[in-house]
Amino acid sequence: MNAFSSLIASGGGLGLLLLMVALPALLGLACLALSRRSYGGQALLFFLGATVNLILALFILFGEEQTVLLPWAGFEINLALRIYGFSRLMLILSAVLFFLSALYSVAFMRRENRSGQVFFYCLLALAFTNGVFLANNFVTLLFFWEGILAVCFAAQLYNDRPKVRTAVKTLVLGAAGDIMFIVGVAVTAVQSGTLMMDVVSGLAAEGPGALGFIGLALGALARACAVPFQSWLPDAAAEAPLPFVVTLPVCLERVAGAYLLLRVTGGFYALAPGSALSIALMIVGVLTFLAGGMMALIQRNLKRVLAFVAIGQAGLLLLGAGSAVPAGSDGALLSLFAQVPALMCMFFAAGQVEQSTGSADLRRLGGLGHLMPFTGVAFVLGAACAAGLPPFGSFFADQLIFSAVNDADILLYIGSLLGLFFTAAALMRVGATCFFGPVRLPEGMEREQVKEAPGAMALPTVLLAVAGLGMGVLIGPFSSAVRNVTGSTVEGWSFSLVLCLIYVIALLLAVLNHITGHRATGEALRAADHIHYLPGLYRVYDAAERHYLDPYNILMGVVRVYSWLCRMIDRCLSWIYENLLERLVDRGSGALHDLNTGVVNQYLLWTLGGLAFLVLLFLVLV
Amino acid sequence: MSASLASLMYAFIGLPLLAVAGLNLAGRRLTRRICRPLGVFVGLAQMAVAVISQLLLLQYHKSSVSFSQFWDMTVSDSAAYLRVDAFSLVALFCIGMAVAAAFSFKWFDSEHNAFNFTNMALLLMLGLNGAALVTDLFSLYVFIEIAGLCSYTLTALYREERGLEGGFKQLILGALASVLILIGLAFIFMECGSLRYDALALFFSEELPLPILDYLAFLFLIGGFGIKAGLVPFHQWLPDVYESAPAPVSILLSGIATQMMGTYALIRIMSELKGGAADPVADAILLLLGLITIFVGALAALAQKDMKRCLAYSSISQIGYIVLGVSCGNAFGFIGAMLHFFTLTLGNTVLFTDAAAVDLATNTTDMERLGGLQKQMPLVGVTNLIAFLSNAGLPPAVGFWSKLLIIIAVWQSGNGFIAGLALVAGVLTVACCLKVQRKVFFGPDVEELSGVSAPRGGVVVSSLTLSGLIVVAGLLIPFLLRMLQAQGLF
Can you give the residue ranges of every domain in chain A? Predict the structure, then answer.
């Protein structure tokens, strides 16, 4: 390891950093080039990419800090890469998760079509995400940032079951966020007078700086699938190939979004705790957390439930980062480490369920824990971690975040507790429906046909499930290690017992809610019906289910109004050009034509009139 | 050097004079054959002499050459009657070009008419050449009158009703113009005591503000030359004349005669007098007249049903641009006006030659009776389009550059709004172009014209050559501008 560190220091760093970006992309292209028949070759290349990436990330983790600069377009636009504490942490997190995802995907895609394309998209997304973590120049960052969106769009458009509408939705929402991001980058560059990211630090988030902050933050929200950029994820989760969903929006995009968010709130800009921007960010966080939990509660598709839970979890990151206090930022980072493995684990379990039973419709599924015990246990563990149950890692992370939120505003704290309640209730409902109770299978499906997932799929699922638990058990050493790498100054744990108690009560209420709901309706799936059909709330749910609250539809509505306005303006202009001007020209030229009578007397009169006009003009001018 | 260069200049007087004398001295049998070749030769020879003279001027780094009587070549500038500079060489080149184009095809059935046409056209050429060479206002007036008389006669050459009517209108309006010009000259002479360009420039540079009599003189001159040039509201006679005159006469009149008698004289007077002062009142009047002329000409062109009338109105609009350039009173304006003079001569010659080709093939220029001729006469259609687009100011034709210079000049003189209007008016010219092209060449086929055969010979050659020149001049514009710059024009 020391030898490698010295290699990096002696100039090998350039090659290593470029390799982090170039190698996954090249291997992805090779996957694409291989035909479906050579699935073994594709899988090998994909797995090789993930493994080498993990090894390189490990080298970087234990290597020294390094900065490389390749001149590119001039005007300070360079290919600038940098390894330092935070980026190292993000690189290793994404590399480990990607490796586990690759292990699962190789087994999963054996039975699916277009495996080469899916592997290609995943590796390309990995390359771009690595680029985001390494970028040290805003233009370089923009390049990789947009690359992720492009892959996300292409992956949904060109696959086995292309869904144009969802792909376009992804692109429109992502692009809306990215336009803000570009504005943010431009303002930040102007404010700081440089494009180099390591130089920009502690800018005031006021005046024009506020615009830069908001732009960058909105860009991060778009990648992390927070409100108002979230609505494509449930559709994509239900429709797109599972390895893509897990690798891109759940894992890589989330980590990239959180990375940028934490750098914006705690690095580029000095966000003051309790400031308007901080509160605004936290309001968006609470809304995201609430919306995700509430929508997850009423879904009937397993993967859509998980997608909404994932959206809700992005809210937690926002709450932590937006609080602008060290406890909140640390909480957000730890929450990222806990929630992404938990979400991946649940998605993996959902993938196994869907592949075994051929359905992800909760109305047709039940008691699968008897048939797929490993999957069932992994799902439950993952759900417990995502819900923030003690002693999982997310419990501790949530305590940090909740205490920071409580310090900021009591209403936000209550909102967060509600979000927690809904998320826990939703996860309980889906877990109980799917894995407990009597066995229920889609029509025509026999118990014997449903098999436990193969080892290669079960192993990463179980590993991810255990990760959350392990993190919780070892939260002390783990958080110190993370703080060592990030350089955070917070020492020890400082959350109050009262808040902790309130948190646990909220979770217990969720359990109680489920039990009473289950007893009342006799069905786990309908355990939340009393919330769903609550007077007043029912209308909100109805509007949400009809997609009236979908930000994409609202945006499209605005676009339609705008296009209608443009059409009207265009028609007015057309009328002016085609009717008014034409008539004017016609009348004018007709009149001039009629004036030419061919009579010389009149010509003379005209001439004399013209002379008189000249004299008049002369008198006026002189 | 000066003597050899000056001796070359006598060709501009000598060529048409000798040609007229030779034509009338030659026997009747010979005359019949040599009319057209003689006209073409004289025209081409004049073009060649103009080009050689320009090259010699460049060679000897001179901006002008003065000369007087044949026996006294080395006369001083202040005593010379005649002078050649870059602008007059451009004008002389254009005269040669229009004359060559007018003689390039066989039009007249009767020998008598052909003979008369040749005589009058060569005399017209003499008058125009003289106007380009003189160095005082009175001589300018005299030569313009010579040319004017020839042009009235040429219009009425057939001695049939329409031609006579056209010639009569031209005569009446021309006479009025002569009176106005003479009064203007008298006023100037009263004030200044001389009509020589150099004396006037000196006088006007010292006399500021101008005496009221000089302003009146300006008014009369603008009115007089405005009638000759066809500026709105003095333009009514012009379309009638162009329409009623025989095709070769239309080419001569539209291509060069009206230009020389009106616009050239205006540019020359204003540029010579501007040697001293820039008078804002005269400039403002010219600016307004120019703008009105541009719009009225272009709008009226759109309503015409006869191809030649439409072209006539369109050329009135272009004359407005030249006046606009002159009114700016800056170097860009004069160069732009001069270039547009060249553009318009070139464009109008091609357009009226094409109209002659259409007339030759179909016996009509009524656009209601024409259509789909592009198939029968593709070359004529294409050359017509090139010339029109050049007049409308589209790149890479030479018209683009001349209009651009004029608009820049107007902008520089602080009239940004008027520059914008002038730019927009280009759209009307394009509309006019589209109308002619659609009605005559691209429109639906007309059954009666299905048997029409494509014109051949001189008319096509002349039209093709000149439209080629439009494009080549447009492409070589940096070279041409640098040449003018070397001669100290701006």
Answer: 1-255, 271-534, 553-588+596-621
